[in-house]
Amino acid sequence: MWTYEDFQVGDRLALGSVQVQEEEVLAFARRYDPQPFHVDRQRAAASQFGGLIASGWHTCAMVMRLACDTYLLDAASFGSPGVEGIEWLKPVRPGDTLSAWRTVLETRPSRSKPDRGAVFSEFEARNQHGETVLRMRAWSLFYRRAAGPAQA
Amino acid sequence: MWTYEDFQVGDRLALGSVQVQEEEVLAFARRYDPQPFHVDRQRAAASQFGGLIASGWHTCAMVMRLACDTYLLDAASFGSPGVEGIEWLKPVRPGDTLSAWRTVLETRPSRSKPDRGAVFSEFEARNQHGETVLRMRAWSLFYRRAAGPAQA
After folding, report:
1. If you measure CA to CA, which chain A residue comes closest to B27?
2. Does an H or E element contain B83, and which?
3. Minimum Cα–Cα distance from B149: chain A residue
4. Rounded Cα–Cα distance for residues B134 and B83 (Å)
5. ipTM greater than 0.85, yes or no?
6. Is A85's CB within 8 Å of B88's CB?
7. Cα maximum dimension of chain A
8. What are phi and psi of A70, to 5 degrees?
């Protein structure tokens, strides 16, 4: 069980990889971001992107899943107050394989609640060509070991 | 067709409303963010949230859909380089009705490409109690009217 103490500034963790599926790109975008270059193969091919690309929100969601599978589902986590920045640096296309990493940038114990703290991390995803497609800096909240719900 | 010229600093646009569906909260989270408070009714009820809450990424995606339906699908839009901040201020729960607004904060014509410009906007979503649940500041790219693909 990951708790606040397990995050140290500079720690870099590989989050594994995911292959981007065309059907999922289409399904996500039809529901949440039906711009032509996300949902219409022909119009996407004629656009400046030259083919379908994933919604940026879908890319964030795929990286979130990698983080869940690597450590968040085994963490005394209780959500996030927010994100300080997302950069969608390159198009993400069906068939791409994205690999992601998390680097801890800062840790901050709660002043008012001694049982918890916040961790500020950078998430980076690269495609199979080694190009960085996503960079994101987000806060996550964790209980501390001595006070975590697993010990309650 | 919305083009770069149609965005003026200070413009505030209502993006309409969406009701948060429990089945969709579960489906999104099972696929992308399967933390217990997003996917497990019982564990969510026992958590500090007191019940299921939507993944923050799902909330962003729901607001993206409102933006699409209100103006983005009728815009000479070609994506976004990124987001400068997301604040998930309050839990979003099944049954909530979210209403969203977009306010233009800055517009910036491209220096190198005279046919396009960037628009920096704040997106805000409130629940049926008037509480702000999401605040987000994002860049969007648009063609200019004289050079938009609709006129090509």
Report:
1. A28
2. strand B82-88
3. A47
4. 13
5. yes
6. no
7. 58
8. -85, -40
Over residues B95-146, the pLDDT tens digits come to 999 999 999 999 999 999 999 999 999 999 999 999 999 999 999 999 999 7
CB proximity A147 to B under 8 Å = no
Q: Search chain A and give the residue with CA nearest B80.
A: A88
pLDDT of A146? 75
Written as six digits, the tokens of B25 are: 């909260």
Per DSSP (E only), the strands in A4-146 are 12-19, 82-88, 97-109, 116-126, 132-143
Q: What are phi and psi for residue B31, nearest 5 degrees? A: -85, -40
Does pLDDT of B151 surpass 50?
A: no
Residue of B106, B130, B124, B28 whose CA lies nearest to B67: B124
- What letter represents residue B125's amino acid? A
Amino acid at A83: V
pLDDT of B148 > 80? The answer is no
A85/B87 touch (CB, cutoff 8 Å), yes or no: no
Closest by Cβ to A87, choosing from B81, B87, B89 = B81
Print burial letters for B90-126: b (CB count within 10 Å at least 16), e (below 16). Answer: bbbbbebebbbbbebbebeeeeeeebbbbbbbbbbbb
Q: State which residues of chain A have pLDDT below 70.
A: 147-152
* B16-71 residue pLDDT tens: 999 999 999 999 999 999 999 999 999 999 999 999 999 999 999 999 999 999 99
Apex B126 CA angle, B86 and A55, nearest 5? 45
C-alpha closest to that of B98 among B61, B73, B72: B61
